[in-house]
Design brief:
Length: 129
Amino acid sequence: MEFSIRDFFSIVCMVLLLSAVIAYPVVALFATRPIQRKLRLTQQDYISDWVKWPFQTMFYTLAVLVSFTRWRHENNRHLVDADELVRQAATPLQWWLCLWLAVSTCGMVMLMFSMMVLDYFGVWSLGVS
């Protein structure tokens, strides 16, 4: 049995897929919901009004990880202020959980895209005799 680079890419992609499938509900339970509860107590949960259920976890993940304050101007002030409230309400553990979800999801998508590009250009067939 010979192990090719294509098999390695496929295994890494499957590991990242499994990691993302596990990370999504973990982040939803231990990061998104507690932050929502914390912000609802102070009447500052503006995000749940316009972001619906399946997308809330990814939106909260990006709000925790990425600071959008440098893009603040009059047209998007309410969006940036809501993101900053989420960022301030997150604990370090929630930050790490959100990072896990973001890395596994983005890594899987980038790896799948690179596999398609390499397949399109015929790089996989270069090592075959």
